[in-house]
Design a protein that fits this description.
The protein is an alpha+beta fold. The protein has 11 helices and 13 strands. Helix 3 crosses helix 4 and helix 7 packs across helix 11.
Length: 335
């Protein structure tokens, strides 16, 4: 959200979002040129090496922008001007696969042509190669990686696109989404870019989470059920109060009340049984996941099936720690 402040600083006026379609702004004529000339719009420092790249064997496809990042990766940039991004993710994956085998020497002719056309700079192949190598911030850099990164840039992204991107990232494909929102201010158009996947402040966190997951997978192997771990190792005790409070779906979080019996349960202490908790609302025994599922469904506006629910993640112990984390930390400490 953007506000315009008056000259005497006493009034803030909200500036409404516009749309590229409404402003008659086009993908190739306008957006592509803006990003080409100012790649920092994409949230990082990139060296653009080619535009409208179309040198694919047996294909008429055109890659919007091809770049190199500071770590020596090729970066495929796919631009769309609105939410109707169609198969932008699939297109970008195809382009990334097509350029994945490119070497610096393969890239040099395209970079020299690009520099001549857009910067009026006549580079020799040696000079072009030196510029690419110097851009990469690594003294040991000698060749491009074989895993190009992907950046999708659009005014917005459909749920289908974001879901796919998140899944691809979880599968070790480096793909990002950058939204660019236009605002009309007097006679000017203001563009506000934002990296939406992954969030800038979450990048290092996501890397650390990935490392932790890999470590946990090694330690876990044939992992017993969470409640079995907790009960057998006395990590929870009979009668201990549990609260359904961690990482709740939005429709549940809106109604959460720590004093409401709906969100409270107690450990039965019965080892070897799946029904390990008693719900305060009806005094009946349940497994933690079955009970979480029942509550999520009961609170859903349309009583819809909430799908798979890991109750050990949503229920926290008397120290406000998710049961899943308690069991995982025990496994890691005793691996």
């Amino acid at each position: 959200m953007i506000f315009s402040i008056s000259n005497n600083l006493d009034k803030a006026t909200k500036i409404k979002e516009s749309s590229f379609t409404g402003l008659n702004i086009w993908e190739r004529t306008h957006i592509q040129e803006w990003v080409r000339a100012n790649p920092e719009i994409l949230g990082e420092d990139l060296l653009i090496v080619s535009i409208e790249f179309d040198r694919f064997s047996n294909s008429n496809d055109r890659l919007d922008l091809l770049a190199v990042d500071r770590e020596g990766n090729l970066v495929v940039v796919e631009l769309k001007r609105d939410l109707a991004a169609g198969y932008a993710d699939l297109q970008a994956i195809r382009y990334a696969a097509m350029v994945s085998s490119m070497s610096i020497d393969d890239l040099v002719p395209y970079y020299t042509s690009y520099k001549k056309k857009y910067d009026d700079e006549q580079l020799s192949e040696l000079e072009a190669k030196e510029q690419i190598v110097e851009f990469v911030e690594s003294d040991s850099f000698t060749e491009l990686s074989t895993k190009p990164r992907i950046i999708l840039c659009s005014e917005g992204f459909s749920q289908e696109i974001t879901t796919t991107v998140l899944w691809l990232r979880d599968s070790d494909i480096d793909i990002s989404c950058v939204s660019i929102t236009p605002y009309k201010v007097d006679e000017k158009v203001i563009i506000v870019p934002k990296v939406v996947i992954p969030l800038e402040e979450a990048r290092q966190y996501l890397i650390e989470i990935k490392r932790k997951e890999e470590k946990e997978q090694k330690a876990r192997k044939s992992r017993p059920k969470t409640m079995k771990i907790l009960l057998e190792n006395k990590l929870v005790t009979e009668g201990e109060q549990l609260l359904l409070s961690n990482d709740l779906p939005s429709w549940v979080k809106e109604q959460f009340d720590s004093n409401n019996p709906l969100f409270r349960a107690k450990i039965t202490g019965k080892q070897g049984q799946s029904n390990a908790v008693v719900w305060e609302k009806d005094d009946k025994e349940y497994s933690v996941s079955a009970l979480a599922w029942k509550i999520f469904k009961e609170l859903h506006p349309n009583s819809k099936d909430p799908g798979g629910v890991n109750g050990n993640w949503h229920w926290v112990n008397s120290e406000d720690k998710p049961l899943w984390n308690v069991a995982e930390n025990f496994l890691l400490e005793n691996a």
